[in-house]
Amino acid sequence: MTIREIDLLIDGKKVPSKSQQYLDVLNPATQEVVAKVPVATLDEVDAAIESAHKAFASWSKTSLTKRMRIMLKFQQLLQDHTDEIAALITEEHGKTLPDAEGEVGRALEAVENACSITRLQLGEMANNAASNVDVYTLNQPLGVGAGITAFNFPVMLPAFMFPAAIACGNTFVLKPSEQDPSATMLMVELAIKAGVPAGVLNVVHGGPDVVNRICEHPLIKAVSFIGSTPVGTHIYNHASLHGKRAQCMMGAKNHMVVMPDANKERAINDVIGSAFGAAGQRCMANPVTILVGNSREWLDEIVAKTKTMVVDAGTNRRADLGPVVSPQAKQRIIKLLDSGVEQGANLLVDGRDITVPGYPNGNFVGPTLFTDVTTDMDIYQQEIFGPALCILQVDTLEEAIDIINANPNGNGTSIFTSSGYVARKFENDIDVGQVGINVPIPVPVAYFSFTGSRGSKLGDLGPNGKQVTQFWTQTKTVTARWFEPDHSEGDEIHTTISLK
Q: How far from chain centre, in Å, is Cα 52?
């Protein structure tokens, strides 16, 4: 088996790193080393930033139409290589092939939104705002932007960042997760093939030192991050301290509310799919379900269907979930699941000791389901980021809303109901940034912005939609007055602030 050597991408070229430190990239199902990724030297990080800075002078002056056409080519190449990209995601992340293909589809939506840059980057104008005075805005690029992404979506998360950033006229330095970089690198290579000029898009790899260098470097103007709350909080504070614009989409504890008037079969299937899909390694997963009123009678069926979930390597298309990303992740998940038992939760489905034939070394955790969960337990308070579902039971919708609003996170929440009144009450009373109504994972299509809130987000602008253009541009307002040749006005001094 050939082990891939992951390169840096600087000034439009793949560059072998001079680093003395390389990290193993493992197949989570087998623990085989499939690639080696460098921890870039700080000189290499600086070189990538300098390349982006140099390219900004010409790229920022490139027409909107040309930038859009490059994005259109990139979109097509991404679509054409879906199978190849998905295979790399499955090999290094572990998620099932159908799920990996779905990730590429969501990435395509974000790239397609960037293809709308000729509309999204338009300014505003008021003709004759005062006498012979026009006022208009220019939405201009910032300079060099940076993106730092987590392992769980190695293609979708970068797609939330660099396509829109460079479509707006910025240049970019991307630092993907070192746990599964190959799909990201293929994606970036396709962007270069689509016509992104040298220096406009660069890639470096590494850990905290590389991240800090990005946050501190004076040429970086904005930083986007998607990942865990501790890392996101550090990046937001550190980048902001150094004068950067920053957005950080972070951890979550999403809740799904099931009302007794919901479509029973649909609700049960979506409770299970959203909790255990991708082995629970989604910031928009559903780790908490609240059964309201008589819907608690469905618990036995939820448990029975959970036990039918197929756990296997992601290459098995019949698998419902594959392994978690690393032995360390498995160890952390198991420790949290153990705490649930120790703190008194009722363990109805136990996936801690699952074995998968043919994969004795895989990082597998089976679907795990708790009832009698209270909000002071670790399995409720912490983001498990594994295939675990906590079920709470209440009598009323109001109780469910109070529980959700008391949780510090605000990434997403869903309700299953057949009542328009109940759905409307929920969407208005809930204090969470993204709401699903009979939708289990309420991530909007990419021409709407990602709007997580509260403890799940730092920064006032999210990825995608209109907000992504606002984040990657600065608004310049021009107030202009033009006179006829040889005009006779203006022969008096005016000391007032008003426009006349």
A: 23
pLDDT score at 107: 98
Dihedral pair phi/psi, residue 5, rounded to 5°: -100, 115
Considering the four listed CATH numbers 3.30.420.200, 3.40.309.10, 3.90.1150.10, 3.40.630.190, the one that applies to the domain covering 255-437 is: 3.40.309.10
* pTM passes above 0.85: yes
Q: What is the C-alpha to C-alpha distance for residues 328 and 134, in angstroms, rounded to an integer?
A: 60
Rounded to whole angstroms, how far apart are CA atoms 439 and 259?
13
Per-position DSSP letters for 69-105, written without gaps between them: HHHHHHHHHHHHTHHHHHHHHHHHH---HHHHHHHHH
Which two tokens mark 141?
């690029």
Count Cβ atoms below 10 Å from residue 5 Cβ, excluding itself.
13
Q: Looking at the chain, which residues constitute the CATH 3.40.605.10 domain(s)?
A: 4-250+465-478
pLDDT in tens, 257-313: 999 999 999 999 999 999 999 999 999 999 999 999 999 999 999 999 999 999 999
Identify which of 46, 77, 43, 40 has the alpha carbon closest to the alpha carbon of residue 196: 77
Block residue for tokens 């289990």 = 440
Of the listed 168, 215, 248, 283, which one is catalytic?
A: 283
How would DSSP label each residue in 324-345? -S-HHHHHHHHHHHHHHHHTT-
**Is there a catalytic annotation at residue 283?**
yes
Cα separation, 291 vs 381, in Å, equals 18
Amino acid at the residue 359: Y
CATH of domain 4-250+465-478: 3.40.605.10
Q: Which of 307, 365, 308, 312 is nearest to 334 (CA)?
A: 365
Give the C-alpha separation, 266 to 278, whole Å. 19
pLDDT of residue 148: 98
Q: What number of other Cβ atoms are within 10 A of residue 208's Cβ?
A: 10
CB count, 10 Å around CB of 128?
A: 9
pLDDT tens for 368-387 read 999 999 999 999 999 999 99
Three-class secondary structure of residue 498 per DSSP: coil
Average pLDDT value over all residues in the chain = 96
